[in-house]
Amino acid sequence: xxxxxxxxxxxxxxxxxxxxxxxxxxxxxxxxxxxxxxxxxxxxxxxxxxxxxxxxxxxxxxxxxxxxxxxxxxxxxxxxxxxxxxxxxxxxxxxxxxxxxxxxxxxxxxxxxxxxxxxxxxxxxxxxxxxxxxxxxxxxxxxxxxxxxxxxxxxxxxxxxxxxxxxxxxxxxxxxxxxxxxxxxxxxxxxxxxxxxxxxxxxxxxxxxxxxxxxxxxxxxxxxxxxxxxxxxxxxxxxxxxxxxxxxxxxxxxxxxxxxxxxxxxxxxxxxxxxxxxxxxxxxxxxxxxx
Length: 291
Ligand SMILES: CC(C)=CCC/C(C)=C/CC/C(C)=C/CC/C(C)=C\CC/C(C)=C/CC/C(C)=C\CC/C(C)=C/CC/C(C)=C\CC/C(C)=C/CC/C(C)=C\CC/C(C)=C\COP(=O)(O)OP(=O)(O)O
Prior knowledge:
By secondary structure, the protein is mostly helical. Helix 7 runs antiparallel to helix 12 (about 270-290) and helix 9 (about 190-200) runs antiparallel to helix 10. It contains twelve helices and no strands. Ligand LAOCYHG5 binds near residues 46, 49, 117 and 120. It comes from Brotonthovivens ammoniilytica.
């Protein structure tokens, strides 16, 4: 992979990650059309996602700090309740257990953990399929057409008002399944998860926040899996430089675009991106059969 190719892929990632058009689908199409050679599978795709993850942290840092703090307190409460449970067995005293989910941020933490489980299982089981699918133009083409349909549906769903306290564990689990399926190139992770949220009656602004914060464990988990797959493969210094430059470009451009997405979803403009996904998907399918 050349430096210019890594810069262009970083640009593509930054421009598409926070728009519901599947950045991994665009990266797959770019690599196929421009014969980008790499012997590390989709490691660079995942690293570019880590690059744009920086934008998520910058935009949602207050929520993330609060989520981490509440996660730590929840763990402490679980441990304390376990100790109280053991002491209660010995009959020493009647105990009052600590409530674990005692505020909306703790429910938010629970919703992230519940959604991450199916994402992790699907992502782990399907990781080789995802790598293979990224090399066949037909797959991102068809998946972009599916994304287009989901986006049209989500724009026509009545505005919901659900926030963490109203959201069920089943809602979170289903959204985690959608996110896991979105590892397929062309299925937009943000598009499918936000569509699943609004169809489930979520408040739109919370749907976007939940989708983007939910991407943190998904992308970090994908990175862990990809680095494990790297195994004994050693990266040349030039390749490491290209990877880092691509990640930096993705992070910078991603920060600019994430603000656009927040406006797009609030104004229910997914249909424009559906038309775009329809066009790129049709061209990719056509290109597969006729080129
Ligand atoms: C249950 C569990 C492990 C919970 C962890 C989370 C946790 C501890 C939460 C507590 C609350 C809290 C603090 C939340 C805030 C989040 C935070 C700040 C920190 C959490 C960090 C953490 C502890 C992470 C641990 C993650 C981990 C190591 C394992 C989790 C298991 C897991 C989710 C594995 C990932 C499997 C996977 C998604 C893919 C494997 C196959 C693969 C390599 C595919 C590549 C796909 C790709 C290119 C990128 C991944 C993004 C994606 C899902 C799709 C891409 O979509 P696309 O680009 O097409 O769409 P758009 O651009 O969006 O349109």
